[in-house]
Structure formats: structure tokens, C-alpha cells
Amino acid sequence: MSKDTLLLVIGLLEGVFWILAYIFIVRRAFKDKTYGMPVIAMCGNIGWELIYGLNLYPVCPISWPDCPQTLFQMRDFAAMFVDALILYTILRFGAAQFKKFPAIQKYWIPLVIFGVVVGFGLVYLIEGTFYVPNVNQIPVNGSIPEFLPIALQSGLYTGFALEFDMDILFIAMLLVRGNLAGQSFWIAVTKMIGTIFAYLFVVVLGDQTPLINLMMAVSMIFDFTYVVLVYRKCKELGINPWRNA
């Protein structure tokens, strides 16, 4: 299998498993009448998917010249669409989670919308501001710069930072709630597999840096921890984990 084919397969599988995780989150949200993705994580996540689903920055990394841009933009657009449904569940069910904080309940919708705007702005500006090592020695305008704008890396750094943030927040949500409201074993598993494929994509691409390696190693540790915690909570509550979707 050629490198291009392998990258295509891994990149699409990454998208499939993350979209499945989103679908499971939406399903549980409507069943349990609560949101299933931490609000702060969603604010950054939907901003990232808006940027790449709408191709506001290049959806393909500069280190993969033969990347099928349209296909990967469709993948990110599909994720953006399902993430919009997650946003809807947060707007619809989220205020009920803050009965002890009437001010938050009263202004829940504008607060969430503000968070989405800020999340989008942060991701967009970070992508347009920061640089990373040119590990593949890619020529740009006839020379090989030491650093490349992260906007040319198809959101790898901001995407992994958001995964890192999300993995921690999912565990915190489970521990704070003390139950499986809005959560399921299949959400945990598909999310973890999506993270694994995301890292494999970078490994095959050859764009690894110490920062990416650290973020992904910690993310996978937290992902696995979340899977174990959800599995144990299922057993504690007398729920079959494999039927908990």
C-alpha cells in the first residue's frame, strides 16, 4: 500500500470514528435529556470544524502534496454538521444542569453562543499566528524555512490541543456527575479509536514533533482511562457496557 493510500485510509477512518462518537453523543443527549460533550470542549471543537469544514484554512497539510482536499473537507464538514447537533443539545438541555446558579440558567443561550464565538476566534487566530518546526524540510517559495505557519498543517496542532482538552474534560464530567447521563461506553470507545487514528495519521505523514508526541501520549492515556471509568460505572449500575450506546 502506498503512503498516499495509507494516509487516505487512516484519515478517513479517523473521521468515521469521531463522527460515530458525535452521533452516539447526540443519541444519548436526547435519551437522557442532557448534553454529552463538555461545553468548553464543544466551543473549541465546533470552531475548529467550522474552519476546516468550510476550508477557511487549507484542509490538507503542506507535507502531503497529493492530499484529496475535497474528500477531507467533506469529512470535516460532516463532523461540523453533527457537532452542530451537539451544540443544539447543549442549548436545549444545558441550563437544567445549573439549578444552583440562576444567573447561568437565565443567560445560558447567550453564554454558550459567546463561548462558541470565542472558541472559533481563538482557533482561527492561533492558526494564523504561530509557527512550528519544518520537520520535513518542505521548500516554500524556493527556500526551506526553519519554521512553518501551523495554518499549513491542516489543524494538526490546534486539533490535538482540543483533543487533549476534551479528554480531560470528559473524565471530569463523568466524575462530577457521578453517573452515565449523556455518556456511554460506545462514546468512550469510538472517541479513543478516533484519537489513535489521528496520531497514526501524523506518524505516517512524518510530521511528529516532541509537542505532538507529548499531547497525543497524554490524550491516549486519558482516553483509555475514560473507557475504563465508563466501563466500571456501567458495571456498578448493572448496565451491559456493550449495549450502552
Looking at this protein, list some descriptive labels.
mainly alpha, 245 residues, two-stranded antiparallel sheet, 2 strands, 8 helices
Describe the structure in brief.
This protein has 245 residues and is mainly α. 68% of the residues lie in helices and 2% in strands. It has a two-stranded antiparallel sheet with strand order 1-2.
Explain this structure to me?
It contains eight helices and two strands; from the N terminus they run H-H-H-H-H-E-E-H-H-H. The chain is globular and about 60 Å long. 42% of the residues are buried. The mean pLDDT is 92. It has a two-stranded antiparallel sheet with strand order 1-2. It has one domain. It is mainly alpha-helical and 245 residues long. It has helices at 3-32, 39-53, 69-93, 102-106, 108-129, 156-177, 185-205, 210-236, and strands spanning 131-133, 147-149. The protein starts with a helix and ends in a 9-residue tail after the last helix.
Write the layout of secondary structure elements.
Elements: H1 3-32, H2 39-53, H3 69-93, H4 102-106, H5 108-129, E1 131-133, E2 147-149, H6 156-177, H7 185-205, H8 210-236
Antiparallel strand pairs: 1-2
Helix pairs in contact: 1-3, 1-7, 2-3, 2-5, 2-6, 6-8, 7-8
